[in-house]
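In this section we walk through a basic example: taking a raw amino acid sequence and producing a predicted 3D structure, encoded as discrete structure tokens. The instruction is simple. Fold the sequence below.
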Amino acid sequence: MISEPPKPSGFFSKIRALFFPIYGPEILRFIPMALMMFFILFNYTILRNVKDTLILNGKGADGEIISFIKLWGTMPAAILFVMLFSKLSNIMSREKIFYYCLTFFIVFFGVFGFLIYPNIDTLHPSSATIYNLQQYYPNFKMFIAMWGNWTYCLFYILAELWGSTILSFFFWQLANEITSSSEAKRFYPLYGVVGNLGLILAGRATKFFSKISSSLPIGEDPWQTSLYFLMGFIVLSGLIVISLYYTINKKAAPTLLKELESPTVAKSKKPKQGLIESFKYISKSKHLICIALMVLAYGITINFIDVLWKGQVKLLTNGAKNQAAEYFGTFSEITGYLSVILMFAGGAFLRKFGWYKSACVVPIVLAVSALSFFGAIIYGNFLPTGTPMLILSGIPLTSVFIAAQIGTFTGAFTKASKYSLFDSTKEMAYIPLDAELRSKGKAAVDITGGRLGKSGGSAIIFALTTIMPMASLPSLAPYLAGLTILVLVGWFFAVIHLNRSMKNPEPKNVTKTEAIESSHS
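The resulting token sequence is shown next.
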């Protein structure tokens, strides 16, 4: 972050301080950054809806294929990106790398929508070929499905990378470079609010273009028409992001960036740690172990529910791509509304009820909704196909419908609460630690908890499907439910210990030199 600039003169009214605490001279920087967040999340939401629709309805695919792609596709691709960026950063400026990277994404998604998908039957093997191979080699059925839907898998991987590279990496890198600490407290929450408006608009766009395509003449693929519109918006929105990025670098904050690139300015370096080093560092402190357990538990639980929920959505929509996309669009819209509400309500809840109760909200809601979700699936496994699980006001509701609705609420709430409650309480848990543990500990937790949380759930599902190749995804629900209970119990124990530790902090590490100096004094 930049050094603190002189504070602009003037003050805010109570209403403006709550909704728009931005000074006049700061608007030139704030508006382009907020709009960039909006369009980046708009694209990411559409891409997320499309990638799930494509891969779930691929030939020979099921919800469990998502875990396989994340484990064997997304994670290696992310590692390759980091390696490539490290190479390019030695020969190119950050700005040029951003333009090349974003152009690559825009070109691919445009080509996919207008050239690849219309010729998908030529590029993919037939359904019969995939089915026969899966019958001969059941232990490799999802790998065969990935090969049989290779363009969908490539789309899925790049859609996932859009969020981790364009948003998490490039956007926040620029934001941290041109924003001071005091400005960040006012700017960053508003970026989240504006960005989540992009979720709402993207959800509406997905629903709208999925519906209008259903009125096409018989014989035409309605999903292909939907993709024309949705990928067209992706390209247009991507070009807007490029123009905003250019504006910020050349007009909105050029003096700040020059100051940063000046050799007289000392640049802080984050501690670089590998996975093994991070494990060793975390093991030194029970406090850090508990924070890592929170992050790990969140990632694993969400992964389990996400995979099973999307499998239920496929069953509910019966393989119709437009209906699945419309359903995911509704989910995105709900998530956007909840995110905006929790951005304001989460902070108020934290101030009123304190750290402990706020930290318990997400795991409590997850425990209730997850057990209800798994229960609906497990109960449905014992019912004859099509038998209603219950009848409400004369309307029969199947277990698939009920599980899909519970999964929608669970996923929307947890994703919406990520930035408002979960991240806030997690970051506050670092405060009692000394400077070294706070800095190196956070880096270690981000590496171990972040990586293992995202890939751990996928690895567990991969192991279960490998051990039981003939098992369907719903039949794995009892095993995943049991593991979820264990993970949630660990999460609660971590929160309880952290609450005690924050009230009675661990003794700070004292070096030999400090001990000698202390004894002499």
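Looking at the output, two observations stand out. The chain has two domains: 21-258, 275-506. The domain at 21-258 is CATH 1.20.1250.20 (Growth Hormone; Chain: A;). In the next section we compare this with other chains.
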